[in-house]
Amino acid sequence: MFPRRRPLPEKKEVRESAIPDDLFIEIECCQQNKHGQDICGDSFMTHKLAEEDRVISVLSDGLGHGLKANILSTMTATMALKFTASDVDLICSAETIMNALPVCRVRNISYATYTIVDIRMQTDISIVEMDNPPFLLIRDGEALTVPFKEVESPSLEGRKMKTYSLKALPEDRLVILSDGISQSGIGTEQFKLGWRVEGCKRFVLEHVCRDPQISARSLAGKILAEALKKEVGGHAYDDMTVAVFYFRTPRRMLVLTGPPFHQNRDAYFANIFDTFKGKKVICGGTTANIVARELKRTIVDHLETTDGDIPPIATFEGADLVTEGLLTLTKVAQFLEKGERPTRRNAATMLLERLLESDSIMFLVGTKINEAHQDPTHPMDLEIRRNLIKRIAKVLERKYLKDALVRYI
Question: How far apart are CA 31 and CA 181, in angstroms?
Fold first, then answer.
């Protein structure tokens, strides 16, 4: 998920190598509440420690369902993240977590399961499982068996934790899940004992073999959908959570927006666009005209893609997407901050989709002031371009765990 960055002095010209080619970890989680519940009793959290080149994820399943289960799992996941980040002893952290949980009035116990995935330097992985289904490690079309050690706390009524250490390789996939997935369909004629981890494993292997580059997002969604198919009427009998970690070469994207401060930089600006390896998007009519002029290409407008206050897209050779500038970027920033993924197809949603599908995103921002956007009657959300891009890059890194680089020209 986090390619190691190569530090670049602010005043140096941007090179295509600004985005590294190291291993990237795509992490995606899909959940389904138990039928009839408004909130999921499972919690999945991920925390990035950029200064340590480390990412920690926790999946916790709280006792029962609904709000009470959600409180248990949220508390467990939050504490597990903090203890793991601080390298607290496993037994000590497990005892602290369980002793801190509120006691269920009906069962008279405090209980939550968890799986902790701690990834350092993109490949060194430590996993701790307490009562959750075992994880899957998919490599070269096979599910590997990883040796483990058991750690037990006498004060926790014999509850044992399994600990694993492994080294990730490119194209590995790690799948963790709650028992709502493994026990889906339980009691039915076809799945008397549920789908089980074995059934999930066969399903994952089938889809990875069919599509070796299937994204974590797509695979997690397919696993959840298949688990729901096993349930009577398609209604979840239990809270369901599945998270997929995909270790791969980063999917790179370049976003050009705004004309360069000096016109004599236009050719350099266009050359970066032309030689970049990855998806290429231009936001802004003036920016698109500069690149098209320098590369001697023709822009084709697609007026049918106009959608309310979102201007239409355009196309030209070499560009994956061309949109209007600030209006579209402002809308995308709002979608990202709110966690929305609208299904309507317009310039903003198309740009949003490409950002979420990419891993390493470089924003190359021209700093020439566009006088059209200094009108005080414009909405307050129409910020100066550089601040808007900073806003988008920040939410992409913090909320969506992307690697976002912003450079100015």
Answer: 10
